[in-house]
């Protein structure tokens, strides 16, 4: 599937931990359609090292995202019980206690596969037996989904490379600027900067000023 930008975000129902403590069995992004944008991000594993820095970083900006109508949702291939256990562990001990946005359990790995961020592959060997090549966990994929359920931005990092929450926020603001003003966002656009009209004249005018 590769690039999902411009396509409907793959739907799913899965177990998740919400509010840092409650396990539900049928979490879905459908609840946000028509109401909220979604930042859906994948991470490799619970109880690791880079991953908690990312989950805490998104939590630290959660209210800023919510003010823009954005819901944040995390996914990994761990079980909901593993998520719950990690959520009970304090930050001082490598846990993610205090994270309140949903953490989804992609235990059967279909969500990661459908978003094309699953690191490993299954194959059949010469004895017609199924084998796994590579670790069957998710890369650090991030998807910005609009209110209609369409993916508008995606980025996928390799496992050692943590993401920028500031860049995720910038992309939300860029999308909302375009939707509100009807102007496109040039290179290095940030909040408070000018956009430009999507015409030859608009580009020329922008470049003449910058």
UniProtKB/TrEMBL annotation:
Domain of life: Bacteria
Gene Ontology MF terms: thioredoxin peroxidase activity
Listed SUPFAM superfamilies: Thioredoxin-like
Subcellular location: Cytoplasm
GO BP: cell redox homeostasis; cellular response to stress; hydrogen peroxide catabolic process; response to oxidative stress
Segments forming domain Thioredoxin: 3-177
Pfam families: 1-cysPrx_C (PF10417), AhpC-TSA (PF00578)
Catalytic residues (positions): 51 (cysteine sulfenic acid (-soh) intermediate)
UniProt KW Cell division keyword: no
Coiled coil feature spans: none
Keywords for this protein: Cytoplasm, Disulfide bond, Oxidoreductase, Peroxidase, Redox-active center
InterPro entries, sorted: AhpC/TSA, Peroxiredoxin, Peroxiredoxin_AhpC-typ, Peroxiredoxin_C, Thioredoxin-like_sf, Thioredoxin_domain
One annotated Gene Ontology cellular component of this protein: cytosol
Function: Thiol-specific peroxidase that catalyzes the reduction of hydrogen peroxide and organic hydroperoxides to water and alcohols, respectively. Plays a role in cell protection against oxidative stress by detoxifying peroxides.
Similarity remark: Belongs to the peroxiredoxin family. AhpC/Prx1 subfamily.
The protein, known as: Thioredoxin peroxidase
Lineage: Bacteria, Pseudomonadati, Bacteroidota, Flavobacteriia, Flavobacteriales
């Amino acid at each position: 599937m590769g690039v999902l930008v411009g396509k409907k975000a793959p739907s799913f129902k899965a177990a998740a931990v919400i509010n840092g403590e409650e396990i539900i069995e049928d979490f879905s992004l459908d609840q946000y359609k028509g109401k909220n944008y979604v930042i859906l991000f994948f991470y490799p594993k619970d109880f690791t090292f880079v991953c908690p820095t990312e989950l805490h970083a998104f939590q630290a900006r959660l209210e800023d995202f919510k003010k823009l109508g954005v819901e944040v949702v995390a996914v990994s291939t761990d079980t909901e019980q593993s998520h719950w256990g990690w959520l009970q562990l304090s930050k001082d001990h490598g846990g993610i206690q205090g994270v309140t946005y949903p953490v989804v359990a992609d235990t059967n790995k279909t969500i990661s596969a459908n978003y094309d961020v699953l690191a490993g592959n299954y194959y059949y060997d010469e004895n017609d037996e199924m084998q796994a090549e590579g670790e069957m966990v998710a890369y650090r994929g991030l998807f910005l989904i609009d209110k209609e359920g369409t993916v508008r931005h995606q980025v996928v990092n390799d496992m050692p490379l943590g993401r920028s929450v500031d860049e995720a926020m910038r992309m939300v603001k860029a999308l909302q600027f375009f939707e509100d003003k009807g102007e496109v966002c040039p290179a290095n656009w940030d909040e408070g900067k000018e956009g430009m009209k999507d015409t030859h004249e608009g580009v020329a005018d922008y470049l003449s000023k910058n």
